[in-house]
Amino acid sequence: MHPVVERVTQRIVERSRRTRGDYVARMDAAAAAHEGPARMRLSCGNLAHAFAASGEDKPRLRGGYTGNIGIVTAYNDMLSAHQPMEHYPTLIRMAARNAGGSAQVAGGVPAMCDGVTQGRVGMELSLFSRDAIAMATAVSLSHDMFDAVLCLGVCDKIVPGLLIGALSFGHLPVIFVPAGPMPQGLTNKEKAAVRQRYAEGKATREELLDAEAASYHAPGTCTFYGTANSNQTMMEAMGLHMPGTAFVNPGTPLRDALTVAATEQSLRISKLGEDFRPLYRTIDERAIVNAMVALAATGGSTNHAIHLVAMARAAGVIIDWDDLDELSRVTPLIVRAYPNGAADVNHFHAAGGIGFVLRELIDAGLVHADIPCVSGGDLRQQAMEPWLDGTALRWRDPPAVTLDAGVVRPAADPFDVEGGLRRVQGTLGRGIVKISAVAPEYRRIEAPARVFESQDDLLAAFKEGTLQGDLVAVIRGQGPRANGMPELHKLTPTLAAMQDRGQRVALLTDGRMSGASGKVLSAIHVTPESADGGPISRVRDGDRIRIDADAGTIDIGVPQSEWQAREPHRADLAANRTGMGRELFAMMRAQVGTAEAGGSALWTDEEGAR
């Protein structure tokens, strides 16, 4: 193992000793009590309710000798990434019967699309939807009918929420089943160019809609390497997929074969099968470190600086941004996929894909290869590539060399010697910067602040022509406690246009950017947030702000005496409290912890959300 990876892993183990120990003890007890099919613990009345509508599966469910799979689905037909899952339950039930078991849809979870809510009021429910999904997953599995679980989900908060919820049932084996990316349409680079021209008033709305429709054009995940596709990389790195599942297109024979294989394997690794692999033994400190390293190596989404902390905490593992930063600094950047390059995830997959990446990281000693993956092997087996030999699903080694060095490279010849994410800290607090898409000459700035209370205020100032010269745009009141921490991706075309016309610009915010954060230096997730009286609440127009991603600092050039004397700005947040369902999430805004603690309202102890 690389000495830094080994040291960080051991530090996490020590920090998590109490919480992880408590979690494992609970799961050990639950696993010990799980003798025979779970449903046989139910009363006759309970069980009759549970199989009343099960048709041809009734004899199996009543007989009590075979495994029963609980399907937790995030299907809806508005999300292109989840629309292919409409028919998965039918396929899974058939595969389970053929394997001698049964399967039932245990429940559905909400699945909102950030692409639809981006820049709109609904986005203020986005982060909190992750916790709602976790709770819905728990409700789905609370019937205690199941011996294994298949989680159907792909996108941003949905996979983290499913995993957080499933970890409360960690005594069961859990396999994640995605749908895969849509085929390439209009390239991401071309789409971004039209967006930027529209922001500058140089393209019509009809031209913009044509570009967007040509980009997002079919069932499947969006093709840029944002949060949804970063989810899939992390699931592979933590061993929660059948090998190579992440980026196989929907509606293909290979995709169906992988779904069938996941069904069969879930029965095989249940306590009734031959190779018991409960979730709590797969997700431990090593798996979480693997996810952080894979995220850094591929230039993945900044959103996982929040989500991964929350996922880890659900398994009793305590991580922070120092861990992520230290791992990223020794992890080579070996993937260039949009927004970190021109390629989409289909190209990434064709050039070698996640299997190539995992093998390179294993050989470099940067990940723990000995984790017990759900596929029945270790991480080296997880790096195998699926293919169809006629109708038979088989796996083979990933390509020995990259098939496109402009997209995927070996660890010995990376795009950058460091990974894509950095922790920054200083007098303005702590935050995250994604550097993988930011050119080295733009990674440092010192400029006067322009302070805004919303992204719409900044966009209005841009249209009025008042954003001239170098500046650091400060957008505050966007943290989890203030308004649910919406993404501010709507700003990306405007900030990019300013940079392209020669201005030195950066963003500083206690909010989030999209997982597709781009070429403008952005210090995000700044904590403590403004609503908690954090330093960002004291910033005024004209203050000199310094952001240095390479040095990992965010500071303000205001004399100490003046800085300490300033009163925090208290924004009027009344408008964020109602409308579009926001009134229903008041409890989460009141309870939620910091971004660095995972932005979750599910835990209140000092090692969790506080």
Describe the structure.
With about 600 residues, the protein is of the alpha/beta class. The protein folds into 3 domains: about 5-185 and about 220-395, no CATH class; about 185-215, no CATH class; about 420-575, IlvD/EDD C-terminal domain-like (Glucose Oxidase, domain 1). The protein contains 24 helices and 14 strands. The strands form 3 sheets. The protein has an 8-stranded mixed beta sheet with strand order 7-8-12-11-10-9-13-14. Strands 2-1-3-4 form a 4-stranded parallel beta sheet, with helices on both faces. Strand 3 (about 150), helix 8 (about 160-165) and strand 4 form a beta-alpha-beta unit. Helix 8 runs parallel beside helix 15. The model has no long low-confidence stretch (mean pLDDT about 95). Belongs to the IlvD/Edd family. InterPro entries: 6-phosphgluc_deHydtase (IPR004786), Dihydro-acid_dehy_C (IPR042096), DiOHA_6PGluconate_deHydtase_CS (IPR020558), ILV_EDD_C (IPR056740), ILV_EDD_N (IPR000581), IlvD/EDD_N (IPR037237). Keywords: 4Fe-4S, Carbohydrate metabolism, Gluconate utilization, Iron, Iron-sulfur, Lyase, Metal-binding. It comes from Noviluteimonas lactosilytica. GO terms for molecular function: phosphogluconate dehydratase activity.
Q: Tell me the radius of gyration.
A: 24 Å
Continuous helix count: 24
Structural class: alpha/beta
- Strand percentage lies at 5-15%
- How many individual domains? 3
Number of strands: 14
The largest pleated sheet is described as: 8 strands, mixed
End-to-end separation: 32 Å
What low-confidence regions span 5 or more consecutive residues with pLDDT below 50? none
What characteristic shape results from the CA principal axes?
Answer: globular
Main-sheet strand order equals 7-8-12-11-10-9-13-14
Helix content: 25-40%
Mean pLDDT: 94
InterPro entries: 6-phosphgluc_deHydtase, Dihydro-acid_dehy_C, DiOHA_6PGluconate_deHydtase_CS, ILV_EDD_C, ILV_EDD_N, IlvD/EDD_N
Domain Dihydroxy-acid/6-phosphogluconate dehydratase N-terminal: 68-381
Keywords: 4Fe-4S, Carbohydrate metabolism, Gluconate utilization, Iron, Iron-sulfur, Lyase, Metal-binding
EC number: 4.2.1.12
